[in-house]
Design goal:
single chain, 6-stranded antiparallel beta barrel, 4-stranded antiparallel beta sheet, 14 strands, 20% strand, elongated
C-alpha cells in the first residue's frame, strides 16, 4: 500500500517533532545534571570502600597460672573491673604469706639495730665518765708524787688506768660509729632493709591479686581462646573485649578525592546493615599518614619496566556521633557508605598540636597497689609497737 504525499509529510513532521522532544529531554537532563553538580555534587566526596573499626582490647595475664574459672563467653557484655578469668592462687598466697613474715621479721631486726645504737651511746657515755675519773685520779697522784707520799709504781698504775680508759672509750666509740652507719639518717620506714622487704611484699601482693584477671574496659567479649585448666603464661591472649561505643569508620578515598578534604569536615554515613533509611553523622579525625600499600609487609616496588599506574587510596578516620550509635549499634567490620561535605576548607591537612590527654586509659589496676600499701602500714605498725612494748 503506497503512502500519499500528505501522509509522508505528516510522518516526516512527526519524526522531526519527536527528535526535537528527544533533544530537549537530553538538554534538560544535561542541565539538571550540571545544576545538580554545581549546586550539590561538587561539594561532596563519596566512597563505599569504608568499614567500621574499633579497639580490640586483648585480655592477657600478668603472671603464670592455671585457669580455674571463666566468667564470660563470646558476645557477653562486661563492665570495667569485672572479674573475667581466675587463676589458681595457691602459689601466690603462699609467697604472699612468706613476704608478710619476712617484712615483720625485718622490722624487728631493724628495731634491734636502733636499740643497739642506743646501747652503744650509753656505753660511750659511761666510758667517758670512767676516763674522766681516771684522769682526775692520776692528776691528784701526780701532784703529791713529788712529796714522796706515793711510790712511783703506784703512779704508774694510775697512768695505766688512764690509758686503759682511753682505749675502752675509743673501742666503744668505734662500735657506735659502726652501728650508726647502719641506721644513721634513717627512720624505720626508710631503712634500706625495710624498703627491700616492703618492695618484695608489694610484688607478692600484686602477684596474688593478679590471679583475678579483670576487664580493663567495658565492652563485648570476642575471640575467647581461654579454656578451663589451661596453663597460661604472662602475655597469653585469653580473649578480646570490643567497646562498641567507641568504634570509628575507616573510609578509603582515592588520592584524587583528597585535594579539598580537611580535618573536622562533616561526614554523613549509611550502613549496609540498616540501609539508607538510617544515617550516621561523623567528623573527619585523621586524613591518613600513608597508603595501605606503603605500610604493608611487602611494600610495592614500582621500579620495573612494566609499571602500570594504579590510583592509590588513603584511609580517612571518621569519628561517629555517640547518639547515633546508641540508637543503631554497629559491629566491627561492617560495610559503610561515606559522604564528606568538603565546603568547609578551614581545617588542616595534618594535626598541628600534640595530644595533651591520654586517648585511652583505665584505672582498674590502681586499687591493688593501694591495698598493698595498707597491708605494709599495718605490719610496720604492729611489729614496731610489739618491739617497743617488749622493750619497756
Amino acid at each position: 500500500m503506497e503512502t500519499t504525499p500528505e501522509e509522508h509529510v505528516q510522518r516526516s513532521s512527526k519524526r522531526k517533532r519527536n527528535f526535537i522532544i528527544f533533544i530537549l529531554i537530553l538538554v534538560l537532563a544535561a542541565a539538571g545534571c550540571l545544576t545538580w553538580y554545581f549546586l550539590y555534587a561538587r561539594f561532596y566526596e563519596s566512597t563505599d570502600d569504608a568499614y567500621v573499626n574499633g579497639n580490640q582490647v586483648a585480655l592477657t595475664p600478668q603472671i603464670n597460672g592455671t585457669v580455674t574459672q571463666v566468667t564470660a563467653d563470646e558476645g557477653d557484655f562486661v563492665e570495667k573491673g569485672q572479674p573475667l578469668v581466675l587463676l589458681d592462687p595457691s602459689d601466690t598466697q603462699i609467697a604472699l604469706q612468706q613476704a608478710e613474715a619476712s617484712l615483720a621479721n625485718t622490722v624487728r631486726q631493724v628495731r634491734g639495730l636502733y636499740s643497739t645504737a642506743d646501747n652503744y651511746r650509753a656505753q660511750v657515755a659511761a666510758k667517758q665518765v670512767a676516763l674522766q675519773t681516771a684522769q682526775n685520779d692520776y692528776a691528784r697522784r701526780e701532784k703529791i708524787f713529788s712529796t714522796g707520799a706515793i711510790a712511783a709504781e703506784d703512779l704508774a698504775h694510775y697512768r695505766d688506768a688512764v690509758t686503759s680508759a682511753q682505749s675502752d672509750l675509743a673501742a666503744a666509740q668505734q662500735a657506735l660509729r659502726t652501728n650508726l652507719a647502719m641506721v644513721d639518717d634513717t627512720v624505720i620506714e626508710s631503712h634500706p632493709e625495710i624498703k627491700t622487704a616492703v618492695a618484695a611484699l608489694r610484688q607478692r601482693y600484686l602477684d596474688n591479686s593478679r590471679t583475678t584477671i579483670v576487664a580493663p574496659v567495658s565492652g563485648y567479649v570476642a575471640k575467647r581462646a581461654v579454656q578451663l585448666g589451661m596453663q597460661v603464661t604472662s602475655g597469653t591472649t585469653l580473649l578480646a573485649i570490643v567497646p562498641l561505643n567507641e568504634v570509628w569508620v575507616d573510609a578509603n578515598f582515592k588520592e584524587s578525592q583528597m585535594k579539598t578534604m580537611r580535618l573536622g569536615q562533616k561526614v554523613t554515613l549509611n550502613a549496609d546493615l540498616y540501609g539508607d533509611d538510617v544515617e550516621y553523622h561523623g567528623t573527619i579525625e585523621s586524613l591518613g599518614i600513608g597508603t595501605g600499600s606503603a605500610f604493608s609487609l611487602l611494600p610495592a616496588q614500582n621500579a620495573s619496566g612494566n609499571w602500570i599506574k594504579i590510583v592509590q587510596r588513603l584511609p580517612v578516620r571518621i569519628t561517629l556521633d555517640p547518639h547515633d550509635m546508641r540508637k543503631h549499634p554497629l559491629r566491627v567490620g561492617l560495610s559503610m557508605n561515606a559522604r564528606v561535605d568538603i565546603r568547609n576548607e578551614e581545617g588542616h591537612l595534618l594535626p598541628q598540636k600534640t595530644v595533651s590527654a591520654p586517648r585511652f586509659t583505665t584505672d582498674v589496676y590502681q586499687d591493688s597497689l593501694e591495698a598493698a600499701d595498707k597491708l605494709v602500714t599495718k605490719i610496720l605498725h604492729d611489729n614496731s609497737n610489739a618491739v617497743a612494748s617488749s622493750a619497756h
